[in-house]
Amino acid sequence: MAKVLIVDDEASIRKAFRNILEFESYQVDEAADGLEALAKVKQWKPDLLIMDIKMPKMDGMETLEKLRTLSPDTPVIMISGHANIDTAVESVRKGAFDFISKPPDLNRVLITVRNALDRSSLVTETKTLKRQVSKGKVQEIIGESEAIRQIMSTIERVAPSDARVLVTGSNGTGKELVARWIHEYSNRKDAPLIEVNCAAIPSELIESELFGHEKGAFTSAMKQHIGKFEQANGGTLFLDEIGDMSLSAQAKVLRALQENRISRVGGDKDIQVDVRVIAATNKDLRAEIEKGSFREDLFHRLSVIPIRVPSLNERRDDIPLLIRYFIEIVSGEMGLPVKKIEETAVATLQQLNWTGNIRELRNVVERLMILSGDKITLKDVELYVLPTAASDRLPLARLFEQFGNLEDLQRYIAEEYRNFTRG
């Protein structure tokens, strides 16, 4: 049921509109001036406003301008008993859906309300479709730092071949994005890119997930299952977090890479596959080999082309570009206006310790887009970001960073302790 907010300083007009709209099963609320209307838009989130032009405190035209920032997709129908053609044109130019003269004609009101709500629904559906289309596209790799340029150069040279690639880096740096671009630039781009998060699949199920299983292979195998290797046939298989794969599954993956053949769990037939494998990990696989938890022969099979993705702290020069990129992305996804950000706010964000890398930065930008006003300011960063950043770090770590070496830190702690014991 659509929600309609009636904004007029005359109680009789509000009552007339309420009676008309409630009879048509709309939810209705009222506001006596522009200031009250803006407050109710924030709290109640109406689907449509019917608003008078001449009102105390804040008139309809000023309120309309503020609504374009606060809730740009909410349609507004302007009404007035003292208006002329120029007024009607001006209100539509400033973003009103339509203009109705007082006293309002019942049929005209209902038709205009239906049309406004229909257009609002179309706008929402269009944005949803655009988001779905954008999600289907490969996200850009944003940055102009030397490390990012080197990665892009490597991708362009490696992608057309079928060489296996091992992408390494901390969580949130964008390893999967590198894999997607390798596939996008490859001769296999029209074939599927199948992604598998090895860390998210229980060890007892990973083999079935990768190689499939035959009906009756185990208790819950009620029907045949095609594994990821077969699904990726002709395309690319991205094995994310491969450092968490069990040793038994590693052995089967090694065989598949050596022979280009797999066999389903519970099956006795070899199946030929043509798959390019890209693997990624946040672990030091050489250290895992030393511990005996990762096969050295598989490591060498996977790391024909190694690509290391740097942490965000290693590429701080790219942070301003990433911030503005994420502002546009979040704006499109959430239907918010693109906000400007103060240079001082950018500079402050640039100096933070980004332990969560690109993923953390995107989340912070989304938070600022939602909680800030018309513009993202330094005060917004101090209010919504810095307390969280500080809480994520141990006080001792912050002290060590401040003093720079252990000896100075020890002297400081000793002095503070003496002061504390004195009283």
Structural topology:
Layout lengths: L2 E5 L3 H13 L3 E5 L2 H11 L3 E5 L7 H11 L5 E5 L4 H9 L4 E4 L4 H31 L9 H13 L6 E4 L6 H11 L7 E5 L8 H6 L16 H4 L4 E5 L6 H13 L1 E2 L8 E2 L3 E6 L3 H7 L4 H7 L2 E4 L10 H16 L5 E2 L1 H8 L6 H15 L3 E2 L1 H7 L1 H6 L3 H9 L2 H17 L1
Parallel strand pairs: 1-2, 1-3, 3-4, 4-5, 6-11, 6-12, 7-8, 8-11, 13-14
Antiparallel strand pairs: 9-10
Helix pairs in contact: 2-3, 6-7, 13-15, 14-16
Protein described:
- Strand 4 (76-80), helix 4 and strand 5 form a beta-alpha-beta unit.
- It contains 19 helices and 14 strands.
- The protein is α/β, with parallel strands linked by helices.
- The N and C termini lie far apart (66 Å).
- It has 3 domains: 3-135, Rossmann fold (3-Layer(aba) Sandwich); 146-308, 3-Layer(aba) Sandwich (Rossmann fold); 312-391, Helicase, Ruva Protein, domain 3 (Orthogonal Bundle), CATH 1.10.8.
Quick one: how many beta strands?
Answer: 14
CATH topology of the largest domain: Rossmann fold
Number of separate helices = 19
- The CATH architecture of the largest domain can be named as 3-Layer(aba) Sandwich
* Structure class: alpha/beta
Total separate domains: 3
Estimated helix fraction: 40-55%
CATH homologous superfamily placement of the largest domain: P-loop containing nucleotide triphosphate hydrolases
Order of strands, widest sheet: 2-1-3-4-5
Rg on CA atoms, Å: 30 Å
CATH class category of the largest domain: Alpha Beta
Main sheet properties:
5 strands, parallel
Question: Oligomeric status of the shown chains?
Answer: single chain
Amount of beta strand:
5-15%
